[in-house]
């Protein structure tokens, strides 16, 4: 209960911020399931057929499955899961991280993210643009909030003894995620090993070893 109240306050707080997506031109534009029109965002369903459930998502009280190589799980609530978010410029996510697990370095190309720790201890950080590439990082405890500016590489790691739980609010209905390691070493098709060997200043064999993990 305390958690859901915290979440509600938190999302309300976020609404007061300037969202990154374009402003709506009507009260709402609930995304149409299976819509075949390609627009910037998603086509609206007939407003007369809109129901309360179009503006609702359930299940964020449940921990995500952290049994994977990075030891974390992100449960997103974007326009893909909550059609009523279409055109509204915000979304949310639950992040579960096992002890010493990480949410690996990634970018949200379309959103600033504000993160609230509900349980546990999280080391978080982001890196500024070239040429400084300064690491701005901090250890957060339950109740602490941290903001990751739009488009910057950022990460989280659970440095505590128990599982960590955080709720993120993001300034886009569709923030997008680019996980650096997966994008660079796991693209389809592969980026040429020569390019990555030069970019990372390592032997091509090392590049091949990393590529084989993705
Ligand atoms: C969690 O994920 C692992 C690995 O994919 C899987 O083996 C396991 O059954 C999953 N656990 C649950 C509760 O879904």
TrEMBL record:
Signal peptide interval: 1-20
One function term, GO molecular function aspect: manganese ion binding
Occurrences of domain Cupin type-1 (ranges): 58-208
Cysteine disulfide links: 29-44
Presence of keyword Metal-binding: yes
Entry's Gene Ontology cellular component terms: apoplast
Highest taxon above the source species: Eukaryota
Binding-site list for oxalate: 103, 108, 113
UniProt keyword list: Apoplast, Disulfide bond, Glycoprotein, Manganese, Metal-binding, Secreted, Signal
Keyword Repeat: no
InterPro entries in alphabetical order: Cupin_1, Germin, Germin_Mn-BS, RmlC-like_jellyroll, RmlC_Cupin_sf
Pfam family, one: Cupin_1
Residues given in the record as Mn(2+) binding sites: 106, 108, 113, 154
Compartments where located: Secreted, Extracellular space, Apoplast
Family: Belongs to the germin family.
Function, in words: May play a role in plant defense. Probably has no oxalate oxidase activity even if the active site is conserved.
Protein name: Germin-like protein
């Amino acid at each position: 209960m305390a958690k859901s109240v915290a979440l509600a306050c938190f999302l309300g707080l976020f609404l007061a911020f300037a969202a990154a997506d374009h402003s709506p031109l009507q009260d709402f534009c609930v995304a149409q399931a299976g819509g075949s029109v390609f627009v910037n965002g998603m086509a609206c369903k007939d407003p007369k057929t809109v129901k309360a459930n179009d503006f609702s998502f359930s299940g964020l009280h449940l921990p995500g499955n952290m049994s994977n190589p990075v030891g974390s799980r992100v449960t997103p609530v974007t326009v893909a899961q909550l059609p009523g978010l279409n055109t509204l410029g915000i979304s949310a996510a639950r992040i579960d991280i096992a002890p010493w697990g990480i949410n690996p370095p990634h970018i949200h190309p379309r959103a600033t993210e504000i993160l609230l720790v509900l349980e546990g201890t999280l080391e978080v950080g982001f890196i500024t643009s070239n040429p400084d590439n300064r690491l701005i990082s901090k250890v957060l405890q339950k109740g602490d909030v941290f903001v990751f500016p739009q488009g910057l590489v950022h990460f989280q790691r659970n440095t505590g003894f128990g599982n960590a739980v955080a709720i993120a609010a993001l300034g886009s209905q569709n923030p997008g995620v680019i996980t650096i390691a997966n994008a660079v070493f796991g693209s389809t098709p592969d980026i040429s090993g020569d390019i990555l060997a030069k970019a990372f200043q390592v032997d091509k064999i090392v590049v091949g070893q990393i590529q084989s993990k993705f």
